[in-house]
From TrEMBL:
Annotated organism of origin: Edaphochlamys debaryana
CDD domains with a match to the protein in the record: Macro_OAADPr_deacetylase (cd02908)
Residue ranges of domain Macro in the record: 20-207
InterPro entries named in the record: Macro_dom, Macro_dom-like
PANTHER family named among the record's database cross-references: GANGLIOSIDE INDUCED DIFFERENTIATION ASSOCIATED PROTEIN 2-RELATED, MACRO DOMAIN-CONTAINING PROTEIN
Cited Pfam families: Macro
Lineage, top ranks: Eukaryota, Viridiplantae, Chlorophyta, core chlorophytes, Chlorophyceae
Domain of life: Eukaryota
Protein name in UniProt: Macro domain-containing protein
């Protein structure tokens, strides 16, 4: 009765449950896609993406972790971005870039995902956050970039839907840039195993579609 219940993990799959699990895929225009479990603040890439809020002066979750690891210079660099309206430095769906200061990453791309309301309103805003992030990264010649699961924490986006929208948005942004694309590797760095598993499943379905 248990036949087929156990499938050996693929070679890139490290011990189940352990931090450091990672799977590698490819977007159709050639950029490498890595899905991994871990802490984004330790990523040794050109840029890490922060799931910020519109004020852009820090917060909880991954935002708090990035500000703690980058040091107090980060909030000062954020504050230098002008307010586009009172209290808003980065409207939802847009992105801003700063140096990474004490982080291994050279840059932090700050973006703001939506507070989840419903798919019709929230999906275009989540997609815009990813596309804007890729765009500002490309403008700085970024070759490798790590994303957290934007909006999957306090902003409450359902995880399976977030994974689908996120991967499709990055794929579209990379394709749109054409020859001008500098981004050769995109990583999703997910904190917990459940979100990691959901992103892996979506990447498998997504890359099989192409
Ligand atoms: N590395 C990777 N992922 C992390 C880390 C980390 N060090 N820490 C948390 N996560 P959230 P949001 C995951 O709530 O939903 C902030 O207060 C976390 O498990 O950080 O976009 C901002 O200032 C979750 O999967 O961001 C905003 O006000 C994901 O990162 C608001 O939260 C995002 O969770 C943004 O909400």
């Amino acid at each position: 009765a248990l036949t087929g219940a156990f499938t050996p993990p693929p070679p890139t799959h490290k011990a189940a449950g352990g931090a450091g699990m990672a799977r590698t895929f490819n977007f159709k225009q050639g950029t490498k896609l890595v899905i991994k479990q871990g802490d984004i603040t330790t990523e040794d890439v050109d840029a890490i993406v922060n799931a910020a809020n519109e004020r852009m002066l820090g917060g909880g979750g991954v935002d708090g972790a990035i500000h703690r690891a980058a040091g107090p210079e980060l909030v000062r660099a954020c504050a230098q971005h002008p307010e586009v309206e009172p209290g808003v430095r980065c409207p939802t769906g847009e992105a801003r870039i700063t140096p990474g200061f004490r982080l291994p990453a050279k840059f932090v791309v700050h973006t703001v995902g939506p507070i989840y309301e419903n798919d019709r309103e929230s999906a275009p805003l989540l997609a815009a956050a990813y596309r804007s992030s890729i765009k500002v990264a490309q403008e700085s010649g970024v070759g490798s970039i790590s994303f957290p699961g934007i909006s999957t924490g306090v902003f409450g986006y359902p995880w399976d839907k977030a994974a689908q929208v996120s991967l499709e948005a990055v794929d579209a942004a990379l394709s749109e840039a054409g020859e001008a694309n500098s981004v050769r590797e995109v990583r999703f760095v997910l904190f917990g195993q459940k979100l990691y598993d959901i992103f892996v499943a979506e990447a498998e379905a997504f890359t099989a579609k192409e």
